[in-house]
Write a structure and sequence with these properties.
By secondary structure, the chain is of the alpha/beta class. Among the domains are: 5-137, no CATH class; 227-415, Type I PLP-dependent aspartate aminotransferase-like (Major domain) (Aspartate Aminotransferase, domain 2). It contains eleven helices and 23 strands. The strands form eight sheets. Strands 11-19-18-17-14-12-13 form a seven-stranded mixed beta sheet. Helix 4 runs parallel beside helix 8, helix 5 (238-250) packs across helix 6 and helix 9 runs parallel beside helix 11. It is globular, with a radius of gyration of 25 Å.
Length: 551
C-alpha cells in the first residue's frame, strides 16, 4: 500500500511601528487605527534573553475592543500564561515567533522575569520557564478557555478536551450521588474507590470489566487466542510512556530494529524515545522545507524499504499538530508481514480498525481526546506478542510498562487510574447509545467537511496547509486567518480569537513552550458535535463577511 519542522521566523513588529524593540526599558507605542501616534497599548520590554524561542500573543499591537485597554473593561486576576513543558508541542509544523532580544513583553508596566541578568548575558533560574504576564492582554490571546458566558462554551482544544455533555453530566451526577447517597446506585465514586474492591474488580459487574468489555464492543476487538485475540490494558504514562514501552516490550536489546513511518510531530517524537531502546529504521514524509504534508510512500512488503528484521512497523494514525491522518490500514496484498504498532491517541473510536486483516500488533490511545480524560492510556495488544518465547522483552522494562506483567495481573499489578477507567466505560456506553463507531465516523466526516469546504471556498481569507487532500485530518483542522493581505496577519488573527472567545468558541490556539504558529486548529473529537461545528462555521462566515476583501 502507498501511504499516501521546525521553521522559525522572527516577530514582525511591522514597518509602521514607531519604536522597534531595541533595548530593555523602552516603551513601544503601537499606532492606533486612525494612523495617529496615540497608543492603543504600551509595550514595556522587561528583560532581554538572546536566542530564546518563546511566543507572546501580546507583541501584536492588536487594537483592544473599543480602543480601551482590556483591564479597564474587566479585571482578570489570574490573566497569566505560564508556558508548561508538557503542553502539546508545536514544533515540526507550526512556524514559531523567535524573540532574539527579550523574553517577556507586557502592556503597561514592568514585571519580574525568570531570567537572571549577568555580565555574560541572560540565564535561567534553575527550572524556570519563560513567562508572559499582563494586566491588559485579552484572555483569548493567553489561551484561556473561560469565556464571558461559560454556558455557551464550545471547546475545540487539541487535547485535553471536553467529553460529550451527556457524559460529563453522568460523571457529575455519579460524584454527587456518591457524596449525598441520593440518586444513582449509592456506590462510591471510582475517584476514591479501592482498585481491589469487588465494585471495581468483579469480572461480571465491576467497573474495570465494564470499561474493557464496552471498549471491545465499540471497536470490535477480537477476543480469541494468540494471533486471533487482543488484551485490553489501561495504563499510566500517556503517549510518551508508550513511546518507550513499545520498544522495551518488543525488542530485547538496543540492537534490535523497529521501522518508523514518520508523518508528523508525534511519530517523529516517538523516535527520540525509541532510539534509547532499539535501532529505529526511519521512513519519513518530511519535505525539504521541514513540513509534513502526507503519509510516507512505503511498500510494507518490500524488504528494500522495510527491513525484514524489524520487530514492528510503527505509525501515528493521526498527527494532531500537522493535520495528517491515515484512514485505511494496508490489508490484502498490501498487508504488512510485520506487526503494526498504531499510535491512535487522537482518532481512536472515530473509525473502525482492521485488527487482524491489517496485522495490527499493538494500538495505544491516550484517553484525553476521544475516550476519556487525562491520566489513562488504553493499550490493545495482540496476545501472541505477550509470549516471552516469541517476543522477549528488554530485561530493563519496568513492571508498570511491561505488557505481559500487567495482563497476567488482570491490569491490577499496580494501582490503576480507577476514576479514569470508570469514565472510559461511560464514554463507551455513550458511543454505543449513539450508533457506535460507524456513526462516529460518519459524524467525523461531516464535521470536517463543513470546515474544509468553507475554508477552500473562502478565496484565500482562510487557508489550510497544503496537506494532500486524501490525508487531511478529520480530527484536527489547521487553518490560518489570512484576511486581505494573503500572508500571515497576526492582527486579524488576534481579532478572530477575541471575537470567537466572546461568543464562547475557545481552544483554537494553544500556547506552548514552543510558541504559537501561523495556523490555528479546530479539533473535532467525539465531544464536539455537529451543532458545535456548525456554530464555528457560522462564526467564520460572519467574521469573513465583516473583515473580508472589499471591492
Amino acid at each position: 500500500m502507498r501511504f499516501s519542522q521546525n521553521k522559525t521566523v522572527e516577530i514582525d513588529f511591522g514597518a509602521d511601528r514607531r519604536s522597534p524593540p531595541s533595548q530593555q526599558g523602552k516603551t513601544l507605542v503601537s499606532p492606533s487605527k486612525n494612523g495617529t501616534d496615540e497608543p492603543t497599548a504600551n509595550l514595556t520590554l522587561t528583560s532581554s534573553f538572546i536566542g530564546s524561542t518563546v511566543a507572546s500573543p501580546l507583541a501584536t499591537g492588536f487594537p483592544p475592543k473599543n480602543n480601551q485597554l482590556y483591564s479597564e473593561e474587566k479585571k482578570h486576576e489570574d490573566a497569566d500564561a505560564s508556558l508548561s513543558s508538557d503542553a502539546d508541542p508545536m514544533d515540526g509544523f507550526l512556524p514559531l515567533r523567535k524573540i532574539d532580544s527579550l523574553d517577556t513583553i507586557m502592556m503597561g508596566k514592568s514585571i519580574p522575569s525568570p531570567i537572571e541578568k549577568s555580565s555574560k548575558g541572560a540565564s535561567y533560574h534553575s527550572g524556570a520557564q519563560p513567562v508572559v504576564k499582563s494586566e491588559v492582554a485579552h484572555p483569548a490571546l493567553l489561551g484561556r478557555l473561560t469565556p464571558p458566558n461559560p454556558k455557551d462554551r464550545v471547546n475545540f482544544s487539541p487535547g485535553p478536551t471536553g467529553l460529550p455533555k451527556e457524559v460529563m453530566t453522568e460523571v457529575a451526577q455519579s460524584l454527587v450521588s456518591s457524596v449525598t447517597g441520593e440518586g444513582g446506585d449509592g456506590m462510591l465514586s471510582a475517584m476514591y474507590l479501592s482498585h481491589r474492591s469487588p465494585e471495581f474488580t468483579d469480572p461480571n459487574t465491576g467497573i474495570l470489566a465494564h470499561a474493557a468489555n464496552s471498549l471491545r464492543r465499540v471497536m470490535s476487538i477480537p477476543d480469541g487466542d494468540g494471533e486471533d485475540g487482543y488484551e485490553i490494558l489501561f495504563l499510566h504514562g500517556g503517549g510518551h510512556g508508550q513511546f518507550a514501552s513499545v520498544p522495551l516490550n518488543l525488542c530485547k536489546s538496543k540492537d534490535e530494529k523497529g521501522t518508523y513511518l514518520v508523518s508528523g510531530t508525534w511519530s517523529a517524537r516517538a523516535i527520540g524515545e525509541a532510539e534509547k531502546y532499539c535501532a529505529p529504521q526511519v521512513i519519513s514524509s518530511i519535505t525539504d522545507d521541514g513540513r509534513y504534508l502526507s503519509f510516507p510512500q512505503a511498500d510494507l512488503n518490500d524488504p528494500a524499504q522495510v527491513d525484514p528484521e524489524s520487530k514492528f512497523v510503527y505509525m501515528c494514525t493521526n498527527e494532531t499538530v500537522n493535520g495528517v491522518e491515515v484512514f485505511d490500514l494496508p490489508t490484502g496484498d498490501d498487508r504488512s508481514p510485520i506487526p503494526l504498532v498504531l499510535d491512535a491517541s487522537s482518532d481512536f473510536t472515530t473509525k473502525p480498525v482492521a485488527w487482524t486483516d491489517a496485522n495490527v500488533g499493538i494500538l495505544f490511545a491516550c484517553a484525553s481526546k476521544n475516550i476519556g480524560h487525562p491520566g489513562l492510556t488504553a493499550v490493545v495488544i495482540r496476545r501472541d506478542l505477550l509470549d516471552p518465547e516469541l517476543y522477549p522483552s528488554n530485561p530493563a522494562c519496568p513492571g508498570v510498562f511491561h505488557y505481559a506483567t500487567q495482563a497476567k495481573a488482570g491490569n491490577l499489578w499496580n494501582t490503576v487510574a480507577t476514576f479514569n477507567v470508570q469514565v472510559v466505560g461511560m464514554m463507551m456506553d455513550w458511543i454505543l447509545r449513539n450508533g457506535g463507531v460507524d456513526e462516529m465516523e460518519r459524524l467525523s466526516k461531516a464535521k470536517a467537511a463543513l470546515l474544509y469546504d468553507l475554508i477552500d471556498e473562502s478565496h484565500g481569507f482562510y487557508e489550510v496547509p497544503p496537506v494532500a487532500t486524501e490525508s487531511r485530518s478529520r480530527m484536527n483542522v489547521p487553518f490560518a486567518v489570512r484576511g486581505n493581505g494573503g500572508g500571515h496577519d497576526e492582527d486579524i488573527t488576534a481579532r478572530f480569537l477575541i471575537d470567537a472567545w466572546e461568543e464562547g468558541i475557545v481552544g483554537l490556539r494553544t500556547i506552548t513552550p514552543f510558541g504559537v504558529g501561523d495556523y490555528l486548529r479546530a479539533s473535532l473529537y467525539n465531544g464536539v458535535n455537529l451543532v458545535d461545528t456548525l456554530r464555528l462555521a457560522d462564526f467564520m462566515k460572519r467574521f469573513m463577511k465583516i473583515n473580508g476583501r472589499r471591492p
